[in-house]
Each structure stands twice: as structure tokens, then as C-alpha cells.
Design goal:
The complex is a heterodimer of chains A (304) and B (462). Chain A is mainly α and 304 residues long. Chain A folds into two domains: 34 residues; 236 residues, MetI-like fold (Orthogonal Bundle), CATH 1.10.3720. Chain A contains 15 helices and two strands. In chain A, strands 1-2 form a two-stranded antiparallel ribbon. Chain A is flat. The two termini of chain A are 49 Å apart. Chain B is α+β, with helices and mostly antiparallel strands. Chain B folds into two domains: 184 residues, D-Maltodextrin-Binding Protein, domain 2 (3-Layer(aba) Sandwich); 212 residues, Periplasmic binding protein-like II (D-Maltodextrin-Binding Protein, domain 2), CATH 3.40.190.10. Chain B is built from 20 helices and 15 strands. Chain B has a six-stranded mixed beta sheet, with helices on both faces. In chain B, strands 12-7-13 form a three-stranded antiparallel beta sheet. In chain B, strands 4-5 form a two-stranded antiparallel sheet. In chain B, α10 crosses α11 and α19 runs antiparallel to α20. The chains are: A mainly alpha (304), B alpha+beta (462). At the A-B interface, α12 and α13 of A face α4, α12, α19 and α20 of B.
Chain lengths: 304, 462
């Protein structure tokens, strides 16, 4: 309007608005900085040191990383973890999706069944590990007693080198309720018109599931895949409680996080523990990146 | 008829009430505390000259505090506690799997809020002291004319690091031989005669093992496991010098877990895994537990190597059990030794009341304290004077342990003690399951322990 606009002294209105916004966000920002960023950066620093808690950290450069690469225990634990993820991920997607499809029908008492399949998620990890340890016990467990009474072969479950990891996958599949709930939600979003069209075209139920349902919920599958992968890599509670941290039998249940725990809290080598944590982070980041890079080929974001 | 809204409201009120009532015990606790304070205040008012007592806390990890609690909270408080104005209390902290040390304890020390003292698994003393987590006790010992000579070598060696002492040993334990007389009788063996050497052990184990038609085991003669704490020390023979060269060579400063005698012992243990299908044995073992589910008590194994603490367990849970105890049968030409474990009192760095903690620790490990504890708990004292007392051999079954105690070996008191323990167990697991050869697995352990010790120097101790 005029060439001389009266400027208020101090901050401009837009800056003032920004500052007010930041002030409202500040508790969350402070929390993020103090409880996430600061510990993460400190642990990154410690991963380059030999830190024995009561003494100050001593800079050793990449020595911890080099030790990790040459130590057979790390290699073994990484292999165990990868094998477990390879077993768990596909099964969890199939089982969760299957359950969600079943729980999406309109039969009587469906809310009860949905709650029933969700309950295992609420059981604390340690309690479930202890109970499952006995359920799957080769000599005294219920499962083998049942199999024995039916004359079927009785696998060694957690006492056997070949069956230990599959047992863990089974236990994890028991707690698949979270994914089921998410799939259920996304199943509601598949347009009915597509099913009607498919029926008109003569598709049977399997074809409808494979050609209509699955493509429409691929974003959810992607989400559960990423979350499942991250969770599976961090598996700790169940194998730790079951084997008392030893990874027996035959070191098949020695997971990466258990070795991390051992180095940090048993051997009191916090530097090495931090190193392992960061390697795990980078590893999962890379894998997640790889999964994301393939999404163009199979994830359909059309939505309803 | 309740509407949904009313139902939800009612549920909300109910859960709020339940949550509040869950908080109620602390309310009752404070009322009992204030009631106790009230009576204490009354007592103090009645005896105005009574001094205010220093409260100290001792952490422990035991579910069963019989004799420990009485010794600390009753006897100590009413005798030395009265005299010096100390009131001690014990507090339970859970132990974590794989080790008998408590991460909570470590975190508390690092965080600057440790308990006053701790009832600690003694073989880890050097591992924790090496991290500057414990206070050296030498000054207290000198000031109080501590009678070092009354203690067996094990108690001193295990508590020493770089010439300083960090723990006061309370008692010790070791493993000796148990056999089921009824199983022997059933198998046609003389129930009063345990195997006399290792060949007989192998022979008897074969005779006593019962296998079912589907290949699973009904009973196993013997399952030798536990290199480090169990068998290897037996076959290493009598020590030449107090510190010796078992698993760690103190002079050469390197790990010697692949000593030919240890290799020979581990190969013997492995022979059992090969002979008795290891998958079946694993399945058999996975159901083993403690107390009521003890495998020896249940008749799942006929011979075992176990500690003297099991005697009171068997008396309690299997009172009619027919078994014998003896020294461990050893190969020809070797004289026997065993590995001693046990617990000790330690004072963490940053302890709020170190002087009072010393008083408590000194009392627990004094002649009177040790006699009281070992008599009631049937454990092995670490004082020669208390070991000589007749109560130790009152139960004739206890004699094999008492005889071995003066010459017990300890696991090497090095800062890598925890590493050595975990890695030896890992090696055993891998050897038994044919993942690594005996020599390779033990060489790996050497490498790990050497690497862990490489960065340690006595000058690091504060």
C-alpha cells in the first residue's frame, strides 16, 4: 500500500506463529532429543571405544567392528537370526492373512473369535516363554504327549538342534494377532464392486482372494513385512528365557540380540555392545531399503 | 436393563477402583511402618540414651533365605548391630539367566545407587573387581587384624586380584559323586560299592541305561556335563602351586584351556554324547529341573556329579531316596582335586555405609557366623577351624565333600572370568553337538579369553 509500512519491533508475525508452534511441540522435541538422539549418538561414539563402564571410554577406532567381522560367535548368531527371519516372515504373512480372511466372514460370534485370536498378543513375553518351554518339552510336554498318544512321531522341539528354530517360529506365530487386526482393517477397504465384478466373470473363491483381495491390500502386506522383519531381527525374550541366555542346544538358539546382551551386560564391554547395536541398525536399514526398492513391482497404492 | 453407555461407565469406575485398591498395599505398608515407628519412637522415648541406628541393606539373589535372614536380621542386629548401632536388612534381587550375577546390581553401582553390601557369587569377584565395581578390603583387614591364615587357599585366591582382596568368602561347595543304590541293585550291581575308577563308571553307565523301543530314554546311567566347574578340575590332578595353570596360566599370562589333560577329559565327555544319541539325550535332559523335578531324585539318572547342597534337597523332596555318596571316581594314576564354588560378601564402590558393611561382612564370615550358617544350611565352611568342627561330618554322606574342601581349586580369578565361563559352556555345547572338534573349540576359548584379558592391566584398578 504505502512505501513505509510500519514494522513492529522484534519478531514478525509469521516467525511468532512458528515460535508458538515450536513451543507447543517442545515437550515432544525435547523427548526426542534427550531420549532418542542423544543416546543414539552417544552409543555411536561408544562403538568406536573400549568402554568398561566404570572406566572412561578409550578410543580404539574400528577395532570393535573388525573383531565382530572375524569372530565366529557373531557370524553364528547372525546366521541364526537370518535363518529365523527367513522362516518366520513368510509364515507370519500367510498365517496372519489367512486368519484375517477367515475372521472377515459374517458368521455368528465373530467378535468373540477376533478377540480370541488377539489374546496371545497380550501375554507377557517371559510368561509365554516359560509356558511354551514346558508345552513343547520333548519328554514331558503336552504336545508330544498328544502326538505320542496318537502314535505320531514326536519331534524334539526346543531340545533338538533341527527343531529348535521352527519351535520358536511356532511360538511367534501364536502371537500373530497384531498383524491380523491390521489386515482385518485393510480388508474392509477392498471395494465390494471388485468382488462382484470378479464373481460375474466366474472367479471362484481362491481366484477372488488371489486376484482381488491380495493386490488391494499389498500396502498392508508391505507394512507388516517391514514391521515383522524389524521385530524378528530383534528377537530376544523367548530364546533368552528358554535357554537361560546360552543359545543351546548346539548354539542354534543363539540370536544376535542375545550376543549383544552378553557382551554388554555379562562381559561389561559396553563398547562392543554399542558396535553390535549399530551394525544391527545399519543391517536392518539396508534390508528395509531393499524391500522398499521392490515395491514398484508388487505394491498397488490405488486404494479404495 | 443396562444401556451400553451405563455398562461402560460402570466398567470404568470398577477398573479405577481396582487400580486404586492395587495401590492400597503401599498405604497399608506405610500404616504398618508408621505403627512400627510409633512403637520404636515409644521405645526410644523410654530409653532416651538409645542411639539412632545406621540402616544398611544387603542384596541377595536367593529365593530361600533360611539361615541367611536369621543370621543377618536377628543375630547380627541383636549382637554386633546393637553394640555398634547398625541395623541390617536383606533384600532380594532376581538373578538373570546364564549367570548368578545380577545386572541390576551392576546397573546400581554404575548409577551410583548401590546397596551397602552384596552376597555375591564368588568366582566372578575378579571379573567385577577388574571393572572397578568393588571396594578393596585390605585396609579394613589390616585395621581389624583379619585372620587370613584360618581360611583355606581357595577363599583367598578367588577373592584376590592384583594383590588386593575384594571379597570375604562365606562358604564353598563342590561336586562329588552320587549313585542310586536301588538302581544298582536292580541292575545286578553291588549297591554299596560305587564305581572305583573311570572305566567302571563307563561300564556301569552302560548297564544302568534303559532305552525304550522308540529310541527315547527311560533312564540314563550318567550324563557328564559341566567341563569347567565339574569334571575337568578333577582330572587335572593335585595343584603344584597355589595359583597353578588350570585354564589360565598366571605366569605366561595366557589362557591354557587346550591343556592336554583338559582335552582328554572333554573327549571322554564327548564319548558319552557319541555313544548315547545326543538328540535323544538332549530331549531327555530338557525336562530336568530342580527340587521336586530333580532328575536324580526322580530316577531319570542313576549316577551323577552334584553338590552337597543337594543333600538337603533330597531330604526334603525325596525322603525315602536310596542313594550313596562318594569321592568322584578318577582315572588310574591321577590324584583327585575338585573345583570349589561358593558365595562371598562384597562391598560395592559407592556403598553408602562401607564401614558398617564391613562389620556385617566380617561377622557373617567370622567363626561364629560361619558356624551358624554352615551348620544350619549344611554347607562347607571356608575356615579351617570351622571345617574341623564335628557338625560337618555328623551326616556321613557329607564326608566326601568335607575331605576335599582343604584342597579345592578355584576357577581362575581373572577379570575375564565371566568370558571364560560363558565361552567354555559354549564350547561344550558345540563339541557335544559335533559342530567343532574338541581342540578347535578349546582353542577358540583361548582366543576369546586372551582377547578379553589383552586390554586389562593392574594399573586400571582404582
Amino acid at each position: 500500500m504505502s512505501s513505509t509500512t510500519i514494522r513492529k519491533p522484534g519478531i514478525s508475525p509469521s516467525t511468532w506463529v512458528t515460535l508458538k508452534g515450536l513451543a507447543f511441540c517442545s515437550p515432544w522435541i525435547l523427548g526426542l532429543l534427550l531420549f532418542y538422539l542423544y543416546p543414539m549418538l552417544t552409543s555411536l561414539y561408544w562403538s568406536f571405544t573400549d568402554y568398561r563402564i566404570m572406566n572412561s571410554p578409550v578410543w580404539v577406532g574400528t577395532s570393535n567392528y573388525k573383531t565382530m567381522l572375524t569372530d565366529p560367535v557373531f557370524a553364528k548368531s547372525l546366521r541364526n537370526t537370518l535363518e529365523y527371519v527367513a522362516m518366520y516372515l513368510p509364515s507370519s504373512i500367510i498365517v496372519a492373512l489367512g486368519l484375517a480372511l477367515l475372521l472377515n466372514t459374517n458368521i455368528h460370534g465373530m467378535t468373540f473369535y477376533r478377540s480370541l485370536y488377539y489374546f496371545p498378543v497380550l501375554v507377557p513375553g517371559v510368561a509365554s516363554a516359560i509356558v511354551w518351554k514346558w508345552v513343547l518339552d520333548p519328554q514331558w510336554g503336552i504336545v508330544n504327549a498328544l502326538l505320542r498318544s496318537l502314535g505320531l512321531p514326536t519331534p524334539g522341539w526346543i531340545g533338538s538342534v533341527t527343531w529348535a528354530k521352527p519351535s520358536l517360529v511356532l511360538i511367534a506365530l501364536w502371537g500373530v494377532g497384531n498383524s491380523v487386526v491390521i489386515y482385518l482393517a485393510s480388508l474392509q477397504d477392498v471395494p465390494r464392486s471388485l468382488y462382484d465384478a470378479a464373481e460375474v466373470d466366474g472367479a471362484n473363491i481362491w481366484q477372488r482372494v488371489w486376484h482381488v483381495t491380495v493386490p488391494m491390500i499389498t500396502p498392508t502386506i508391505l507394512f507388516n513385512m517391514i514391521m515383522g522383519m524389524i521385530g524378528a531381527f530383534q528377537t530376544f525374550t523367548v530364546p533368552f528365557v528358554m535357554t537361560q541366555g546360552t543359545g543351546e542346544p548346539g548354539q542354534t538358539l543363539l540370536f544376535y540380540s542375545m550376543v549383544l546382551y552378553r557382551n554388554a551386560f555379562l562381559y561389561l564391554q559396553m563398547g562392543m555392545g554399542s558396535t553390535m547395536a549399530w551394525v544391527m541398525l545399519v543391517f536392518i536399514l539396508i534390508l528395509t531399503g531393499i524391500v522398499f526398492s521392490t515395491t514398484d513391482r508388487w505394491v498397488y497404492y490405488g486404494g479404495a | 436393563m443396562l444401556t451400553r453407555r451405563e455398562l461402560l461407565k460402570g466398567l470404568a469406575v470398577f477398573s479405577a477402583g481396582a487400580a486404586l485398591s492395587a495401590c492400597a498395599p503401599s498405604a497399608t505398608e506405610t500404616t504398618t511402618e508408621s505403627a512400627a515407628e510409633g512403637t520404636a519412637a515409644e521405645k526410644e522415648a523410654a530409653a532416651p540414651a538409645a542411639k539412632e541406628k545406621t540402616q544398611i541393606v544387603m542384596w541377595h539373589q536367593w529365593g530361600d533365605t533360611f539361615a541367611m535372614k536369621e543370621m543377618v536380621e536377628d543375630i547380627f542386629n541383636s549382637t554386633i548391630g546393637e553394640e555398634k548401632g547398625i541395623e541390617a536388612k536383606i533384600e532380594f534381587v532376581a538373578q538373570t539367566g546364564g549367570t548368578q550375577a545380577s545386572e541390576k546390581f551392576m546397573t546400581a553401582i554404575v548409577g551410583g545407587t548401590p546397596p551397602d553390601c552384596y552376597w555375591f557369587d564368588r568366582f566372578l569377584t575378579a571379573a567385577w573387581a577388574g571393572q572397578n565395581l568393588f571396594m578393596p578390603l585390605d585396609d579394613y583387614m589390616e585395621a581389624n587384624a583379619w585372620d587370613r591364615d584360618d581360611f583355606i587357599p581357595l577363599a583367598i585366591n578367588e577373592a584376590t586380584l592384583c594383590g588386593k582382596m575384594y571379597a570375604l568368602a562365606i562358604f564353598t561347595d563342590c561336586t562329588q559323586f552320587y549313585w542310586r543304590k536301588d538302581h544298582f541293585r536292580e541292575a545286578g550291581l553291588d549297591p554299596e560299592r560305587p564305581p572305583q575308577n573311570r572305566d567302571e563308571v563307563d561300564e556301569y553307565a552302560e548297564i544302568l541305561t534303559k532305552k525304550r523301543s522308540d529310541g527315547s530314554y527311560e533312564r540314563l546311567g550318567l550324563i557328564p556335563r559341566g567341563i569347567h566347574y565339574g569334571w575337568a578340575y578333577t582330572y587335572l590332578g593335585t595343584p603344584l602351586k597355589p595359583l597353578g595353570k588350570n585354564f589360565w596360566d598366571f605366569e605366561a599370562n595366557k589362557a591354557v584351556c587346550d591343556d592336554p589333560r583338559i582335552v582328554e577329559c572333554v573327549k571322554w565327555m564327548k564319548s558319552y554324547a557319541d555313544k548315547y544319541d545326543v538328540e535323544m539325550v538332549d530331549a531327555f535332559r530338557s525336562g530336568f529341573g530342580g527340587n521336586e523335578t530333580d532328575p536324580f531324585g526322580l530316577g531319570l539318572v542313576s549316577m551323577q556329579r552334584n553338590g552337597d547342597w543337594m543333600l538337603s534337597t533330597y531330604d526334603r523332596y525325596f525322603p525315602d531316596l536310596e542313594f550313596g555318596t562318594s569321592r568322584v571316581p578318577i582315572p588310574e594314576g591321577l590324584s583327585e582335586s575338585a573345583c570349589g564354588g561358593g558365595w562371598a560378601m562384597v562391598i560395592p564402590v559407592g556403598s553408602p555405609h562401607p564401614d558398617e558393611s564391613w562389620e556385617l561382612s566380617n561377622y557373617i564370615t567370622s567363626k561364629e557366623g560361619m558356624e551358624y550358617y554352615c551348620k544350619n544350611k549344611k554347607q562347607l565352611p571356608v575356615r579351617k577351624s570351622v571345617l574341623a568342627l564335628p557338625f560337618n561330618v555328623e551326616d556321613p554322606r557329607h564326608i566326601p565333600w568335607v575331605e576335599t574342601t582343604p584342597n579345592l581349586w578355584n576357577r581362575p580369578a581373572i577379570p575375564a572370568g565371566q568370558v571364560l565361563w560363558t565361552e567354555i559352556n559354549t564350547a561344550e555345547d558345540q563339541i557335544i553337538h559335533n559342530q567343532l572338534s574338541v581342540e578347535d573349540a578349546l582353542a577358540e576359548v583361548n582366543k576369546k579369553v586372551d582377547a578379553a584379558m589383552a586390554s586389562f592391566d593392574c594399573s586400571m584398578l582404582k
